[in-house]
Amino acid sequence: MNNPIDRLDELSVFLAILDAGGLARAARMLRRSPASVTRSLAALEARAGARLAERTTRKLAPTEAGRRLADQARRVLADYETAVSVEASGPLRGRLALTAPLVFGRRHVSALVARFLVLHPGVSAELRLNDRNLDMIDEQLDVAVRVGALPDSSLVARKVGEVRSIVVAAPAYLERRGAPRTPEDLKTHEVITGVVRADALEWRFRSAEGREKLTRMTSRFTLTDVDAALNAVREGHGITRALSYQVADDLAAGRLVRLLAAWEPAALPVQLVTPTARLIPARVRAFLDHAAAELVALPVLAPAPK
User: Fold this and answer.
1) Do residues 130 and 159 lie in contact, with contact meaning Cβ atoms separated by under 8 Å?
2) Exposure of 85 in the CB half-sphere (CA atoms within 13 A)
3) Cα–Cα distance measured from residue 216 to residue 187, given in angstroms and rounded to the nearest whole number
4) Nearest alpha-carbon partner for 245 in 160, 175, 140
5) Which residue, among 1, 83, 93, 113, has the nearest Cα to 47 in the 3D structure?
6) Pairing of strands 123-129, 268-275
7) Beta bridge partners of 272
8) In 3D, which of 113, 132, 112 has the Cα closest to residue 124?
9) Which of 103, 133, 262, 279 has the most crowded Cβ, counting Cβ within 10 A?
């Protein structure tokens, strides 16, 4: 393999293996067969004259030689990408695979994707709206909008704002039942939940001293859709907890009232996320810049006063 581009490809595959934590996941990420990824690693190890990765009980990890090569490879590939992007002045082309939370995607992400496609007629897009964090490698996704901290350190994120988890009720309900003054008071109220999940009835609050605690609820009415739950709350049937962007219009219009603000947990970051294991295509870089500019400007993602 004497072609310099092939050697750059070997480095790219090697980084994909490390970032994905395994050969099979790297193959899915790169849309290649596992056999071709294995051959590429073997060829690079033969060229380097050293073993570059070892399997552990949980994942594949770099050796010391592999870590040194990975650091150098990232610099080489970054320089290569910069050099190529300077020359790549033609129109963007290709397909984007995106995901976002259901409500946020409907209200904000779908429109900004549509505007991006107007700007770049050669690009097409698939937007998957799902409140479950889809695996970006297994699902072959280019970009994800994520709310909350990222447990997977192999992903790279760009923060575009933050939201809060807040408790709300309609004025009619509060007139009938009174307002809870502490999280413990919620146990005597009619709680409505919009997510059927094991932890949906354990609401996290923060004390004045900054300590977090879980308050166990009993749901009077459980639905499988956030918007349906909010409709029930607007009609005065109970109290619910929602992300601040989901109820911003209701709070501004007085349809809902924010409760227990002093006990709210820390704000949650809203982030644009991409895999780190491959060179980011020009269309993805362009979309990230477009989406970041639009999302940062959204009032519902601005840091909110407590």
Assistant:
1) no
2) 14
3) 8
4) 160
5) 1
6) unpaired
7) 145, 158
8) 113
9) 103
CA distances from 156 to 136, 204, 259 (A): 11, 27, 35
Do 142 and 286 contact (CB within 8 A), yes or no?
no
- Give the torsion sign (CA, 96, 155, 59, 4): positive
Low-confidence ranges of the chain (pLDDT < 70): 1-6, 56-58, 81-89, 152-154, 196-200, 208, 276-279, 304-306
Pairing between strand 60-62 and 94-100?
A: unpaired
pLDDT at residue 136, as a whole number: 84
Q: Which two tokens stand for residue 217?
A: 């609820």
Per DSSP, what are the bridge partners of residue 166? 242
Listing DSSP states for 23-51 in one string gives HHHHHHHHT--HHHHHHHHHHHHHHHTS-
List phi, psi (to 5°) of 157.
-130, 150
Structure tokens at 6: 């092939």
- The Cα–Cα gap between 193 and 155 comes to 31
Give the ranges where 155-305 is alpha helix by DSSP (H).
171-177, 226-234, 244-253, 282-296
Q: Nearest Cα to 123, choosing from 161, 96, 150? A: 96
pLDDT of residue 1: 43
- Strand positions, DSSP E, 113-169: 123-129, 143-147, 155-163, 165-169
DSSP letter at 105?
I
CA distances (Å), origin 144, targets 122, 124, 157, 277, 302: 21, 16, 9, 15, 19
CA-CA-CA-CA torsion sign (144, 148, 154, 156)? positive
Ordered DSSP codes for 154-185: TEEEEEEEEE-EEEEE-HHHHHHH---SSGGG
The confidence score (pLDDT) of residue 143 equals: 96
